[in-house]
Design goal:
188 residues; alpha+beta; 8 strands; elongated
């Protein structure tokens, strides 16, 4: 009797495992092929280094994976250029070293603007507003503040300057203010 009960339990367990396996295969067939991608274990903020980050690799349906998803764990000396949540697939555009190179764009020019402690933390791809402050002592007479008509995009950044993409018709005013006044960068 005990032997029959044990045999029945084994048959039920094997049946459940086979049914679950069949359901899993059926679901996978509906989603199509899968690909192994890099996934982040914990939330990260823009500007966080990749060094202390925990990664894992997971199979995800190809149809739902971005074309630039990472398939290999990135180097430890990179920086996130946008915030991610636990479980998000990491893409090339999420990391500074792999982000597609930004170019000024049609009708725009790349201009370097010196940084000072008043500038908020910036990363490549940020949109910023530029305020031009004329120098009272440089002959302007009064200190006037002028906002450039359209936003600028951060193309590159280092400890001393940010390279910004600005409309071509704003370059002269920006250059003049950079030489004879002050440029204030406001993060959007």
């Amino acid at each position: 009797m005990q032997h029959a009960a044990r045999l029945a339990v084994v048959v039920v367990v094997v049946g459940l495992v086979l049914a679950a396996s069949q359901r899993s295969r059926s679901i996978q067939e509906r989603w199509g092929s899968t690909i192994e991608v890099v996934v982040i274990e914990h939330d990260v903020a823009r500007g966080d280094p990749t060094a202390p980050i925990e990664w894992r690799r997971e199979q995800r349906p190809t149809a739902f994976v971005p074309s630039d998803a990472l398939q290999a764990i990135p180097s430890a000396d990179d920086v996130f250029v946008r915030s991610l949540h636990a479980g998000d697939v990491v893409t090339e555009r999420d990391l500074r070293s792999m982000s597609p190179a930004l170019v000024p764009g049609e009708g725009r020019r790349a201009v370097g603007v010196p940084l000072d402690p008043s500038v908020p933390p910036l990363v490549v791809g940020d949109r910023v507003d530029l305020f031009l402050i004329a120098d009272v002592f440089g002959g302007a007479g009064t200190s006037e503040v002028e906002q450039l008509g359209s936003f600028a995009v951060v193309l590159d950044i280092d400890a001393e300057a940010a390279t910004l993409s600005v409309p071509a018709n704003d370059v002269e005013a920006l250059a003049h203010t950079a030489l004879h006044g002050r440029v204030v960068i406001a993060l959007r």
